[in-house]
Amino acid sequence: MSNEFVNQAPLIPLQSIELPDELGLKKEQGKVRDVFIVGEDIILLGATDRLSAFDRQVGLVPNRGQILTELSAWWFEKTKDIIPNHMLEVIDPNVMAVKKCERIGLEMIVRAHLTGSTSTSNWKRYQDGIRQFGLVTLPDGMKKNEILPYIIVDPTTKAAVGHDENMSQEEIINSGIVSSSEYDRLVGISRALFARGRRIADEAGLILVDTKYEFGRDLETNELVLIDEVHTPDSSRYWKKDTYDERLRNGQEQDIYDKEFVRLWLVYQGYKGEGPSPVIPDDIVTEARARYIYTYEQLTRSKFAPALGDRKQEIAANIRSWLANKHGR
Questions:
Q1: Are 319 and 95 in contact (CB under 8 A)?
Q2: Using one digit for the tens of pLDDT, what is the confidence trace for 293-307?
Q3: Number of domains in the chain
Q4: What sections of the chain are H helices per DSSP?
Q5: What are the residues whose beta carbons fall under 8 Å from the beta carbon of 91, sequence distance 6 or more?
Q6: Max alpha carbon distance in the chain (Å)?
Q7: Residue 17 structural domain
Q8: Average pLDDT of the segment spanning 42-64
Q9: How far apart are the first and last CA of the chain?
Q10: 209-265 tens-digit pLDDT
Q11: In sequence order, what are the beta bridge partners of 303?
Q12: CATH number of the domain within which 43 lies
């Protein structure tokens, strides 16, 4: 595919976010985000251009972090009538200030198709003979990428280190992660969010195939809150709608507009998370970037404006200014 920004914007990825020690912010580093703690109730989520797959950092895709931040902010606004979220404000194209919440140790995966390349995907488990997914029993003989007879809510643990693991409703409740009534609420909210996402994606010429939602509890009210990111090309699978039927009939992979594009390239190289990852060539990086931008533009119906200049310095300056205005630092 082509995109006018592929050749216009400098392909200088943001590998990390560094702040001067004098700001006094504690830093925690995840696979994709650099997180800064502001007092007891605010967190700064800095999305870098680091790309993770199979629970490993595998490369860098320029402007990816900006897309994740801005698209999450867009979706938080589109879904705040369904459930409150932790977003306070976007203080830089790559940085979102959020309310600190008590994280619930689950990822609520919602699926509309039989697909995927990871060990927790429903397609891999289906290939292994599993037919029961939550309350849904799938028939034999289904093909990869087929639409499911029912939307499936398929939760996994939220692992701090290593791979996430699938858990049944009974296992989740018995573990004490959430109560039975709270689990039912999480399922209902996840279904409502997914229905909203599917409708908006459909209007944009895309299929929202599956996604993950993360939730927390408000530290003051104990109410459920949507956290992390929502409906981004990192947390979701998107396919092009107008090529879906033909590609399914022909047994082809779908036209992918999310992180799965890179994941499948890694799979074709024989990599599934064990050992050092292969170096992703420039043409794959460029194409991945273009597909992230396409998804952003189709959903928001606005042109993506890549942040230029020295991003590390600009991010530090924007955070410094925000701290001075909000906290007198």
A1: yes
A2: 999 999 999 999 999
A3: 1
A4: 4-8, 64-79, 122-127, 169-175, 180-203, 244-249, 260-268, 282-300, 311-327
A5: 44, 97, 318, 319, 322
A6: 63
A7: 4-327
A8: 95
A9: 46
A10: 999 999 999 999 999 999 999 999 999 999 999 999 999 999 999 999 999 999 999
A11: none
A12: 3.30.470.20
